[in-house]
Amino acid sequence: MIALQEVTRGFSKNRHADMVADLAALFPDYFWVYGPACDLHVDRMGDAPAPRNTRMQFGNMILSRWPILSTRTLLLPRSRTISKLNLQRGATEAVIDVPGGALRVYSVHLDHVSNDERIRQLAYLNDRINAFTHEGGSVTGATEFGIEDLPLPEDYVVMGDFNMLPESPEYCSFAGASDGYYGRTARIGTPIDALAALMAYAPDSYSWMDPVDPGKRMHLDYIFVSCGLERRLKSASVDTTAMGSDHFPVWLEIDG
């Protein structure tokens, strides 16, 4: 699976490109879903009027080699800002029919300005993740449509740009605080940082680099998994040689 953030349609800085269509075309054998958290009317494209109903969309995308059975985009809490840009952020959820049983996958993009905002967003996200099996996903009671009810997998993978540092207050609010004696104890309902579980963090680990000042680097991107997947974690890494973004891809391999 591939989880992407800051995927846009009709955005002037991206020359009004339809990145969803472009990315889908690069992976013709993959299933995909797109969840625009921010959706705005576009009046003009350069010096010309925009075609009617042109939208500027900003959101997350998930691509999968296996069928995506259902999807929904969770709109994360946000507060109104005065001088700093604050787009609506979201977490796009996909139930994917992987070999061996269905799995939940989330593509997440958190606020970039305030750790208090990120803490609220992570609390909401974790509540929705843990409520999934008794709330259901995008539809329940599907037999009324003449189709079988969708699976409700307990295991999940959460990937994305969290805009937070390892061991920051917001990180600990999501992954749990590390005890001085026992360290971080795996608990049902608390996501596990896959790179930390595999001891894949280097002392100078980073997943983001300032394009103007390459010496400014931070680790902002993560893959979290449910406790049920911890024993299946095989390898994880950050590809800092990748081109095309100020964020670098984080890779995770899971057995089975």
Query: Which topology does CATH recognise?
Result: Deoxyribonuclease I, Chain A
Largest sheet: 6 strands, mixed
Question: Considering DSSP H and I runs of 4 or more, what fraction of the residues is helical?
Answer: 10-25%
Rg from C-alpha positions?
19 Å
Tell me the strand order in the biggest sheet.
6-7-8-9-13-10
CATH class: Alpha Beta
User: Which CATH architecture?
Assistant: 4-Layer Sandwich
Number of helices: 4
Strand content: 25-35%
Please tell me the overall pLDDT: 93
H-E order: EHEEEEEEEHEHEHEEEEE
Count the domains.
1
Topology readout:
Layout: E1 2-9, H1 19-26, E2 31-41, E3 44-45, E4 48-49, E5 55-64, E6 68-75, E7 90-96, E8 103-109, H2 115-135, E9 156-161, H3 169-175, E10 192-193, H4 194-197, E11 208-209, E12 217-218, E13 221-225, E14 233-238, E15 250-254
Parallel strand pairs: 8-9
Antiparallel strand pairs: 1-5, 2-5, 3-4, 6-7, 7-8, 9-13, 10-13, 11-12, 14-15
Q: How is this structure best described in words?
A:
- There is one protein chain.
- This protein has a six-stranded mixed β-sheet with strand order 6-7-8-9-13-10. Strands 1-5-2 form a three-stranded antiparallel β-sheet, covered by helices on one side. A two-stranded antiparallel ribbon has the order 3-4.
- The protein has helices at residues 19-26, 115-135, 169-175, 194-197; strands at residues 2-9, 31-41, 44-45, 48-49, 55-64, 68-75, 90-96, 103-109, 156-161, 192-193, 208-209, 217-218, 221-225, 233-238, 250-254.
- It is 16% helix and 32% strand.
- It is of the alpha+beta class and 256 residues long.
- The chain has one domain: Deoxyribonuclease I, Chain A.
- The model has no long low-confidence stretch (mean pLDDT 93).
